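Would you mind giving me a polypeptide sequence along with per-residue structure tokens?
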Amino acid sequence: MMGGALIPGGDVDDLDDGDNGSLNMRAVFLDTAADAAAAAVVAVAGGVILAAGGLFWIDPAVAFVIALVVAITQFGCSLSLLQPGANPLRRP
């Protein structure tokens, strides 16, 4: 999964060329990077569960936090696109 985040990451400099980059490439990069970050958090949580020897409540708690972060982020993006005159290629 990390390799998937790094491959489009090598082309991130194209996003700063003044043409605002491709919206599709930005979406692919952000989606892959978010997937890799979520996988890393889940792996760390699994390590904590293994090391602690039974804190199994950490797994659903981490899943809930990841879902909450995704929901808040998507809600914010949706609101920004619904504003009159919104430009999806504009950097926040």
Notes: The chain has a mean pLDDT of 76. The longest helix spans residues 23-52. Residues 5 and 86 are 28 Å apart (CA to CA). The two ends are 26 Å apart (CA to CA).
